[in-house]
Design goal:
alpha/beta; Rossmann fold; seven-stranded mixed beta sheet; globular
Length: 246
């Protein structure tokens, strides 16, 4: 792989924080991550993949935050992981780079974004990545139902909406690892009805520097009622909309 410009190379702050977090890189990993950062920044000039445009901030907010989920995947002994609403590829692409033994599926409903993800996966290359251009509601009804050990999700929507999209995709005993913001506790409180309806429970929350990681375990098989038709989980979330979000 061709070495990218030094302006896109991993900054020292990223390397220091990755080391502090216990993240280890195999030969070639940093070059592949650099290639991903370059592709993301380049494609972002054409389509809206991220509001973050400075390379150093992309490394910190996107790549590092994604890689901090690696410990969760290892602890869960996950072999099949789905990145729900992958968008520009976080957290799925950085995780796939750092964990080549995990089969990573990037699920993205928007065709242009899915095409970007396929191109990145081929160019890096990432042989452990599959890109699926589909809505979560449809994938959770058919090919993807109860197919994954872990679902990871970042900036997908409120927890009560995310649960309906994610739980049908998980095997019983599987875990949703959701990257949430400062309102994580409020979202959990508002998701009680969804947690009950979908046979799941919040197992753990972990506050990081820029996010809160919420882990939700699937305790029982998902009712055939879920997921509902495309768009319905967002229009009429289980438990209702959180009015405090306005």
């Amino acid at each position: 792989m061709t070495r990218m410009s030094s302006s896109l190379a991993p900054p020292k702050e990223f390397l220091d924080k990755a080391q502090e977090a216990g993240i280890e890189f195999e030969p070639g990993d940093l070059e592949r991550l650099e290639g991903y950062v370059a592709a993301l920044i380049d494609a972002n000039q054409i389509m809206n993949l991220t509001a973050i445009r400075e390379p150093a901030e992309v490394w910190q907010r996107h790549v590092l935050e994604s890689l901090c989920l690696l410990g969760h995947l290892r602890a869960l002994e996950a072999t099949s992981v789905l990145d729900l609403g992958s968008g520009g590829g976080c957290p799925g692409v950085p995780l796939a780079v750092a964990a080549s033994d995990i089969q990573m599926t990037l699920l993205e409903a928007t065709g242009k974004k899915a095409t970007f993800l396929k191109g990145v996966s081929q160019s890096l290359p990432l042989n452990n990545v599959t890109v699926i251009n589909a809505r979560a509601e449809n994938h959770g009804r058919f090919d993807g139902r109860a197919a994954y050990d872990v679902v990871v999700a970042r900036a997908v929507g409120p927890l009560n909406v995310l649960l309906e999209l994610a739980m049908p995709l998980l095997r019983v005993g599987g875990v949703l690892v959701a990257v949430k913001g400062q309102r994580a506790e409020q979202e959990i409180a508002h998701a009680k009805a969804a947690l009950q309806a979908l046979g799941s429970k919040v197992e753990d929350t972990l506050r990081m520097e820029t996010a809160t990681i919420v882990s939700v375990v699937k305790e029982s098989a998902t009712s055939n009622l879920y997921p509902r038709r495309p768009g319905e989980p967002k229009r009429a979330p289980l438990g209702g909309k959180d009015k405090s979000r306005s």
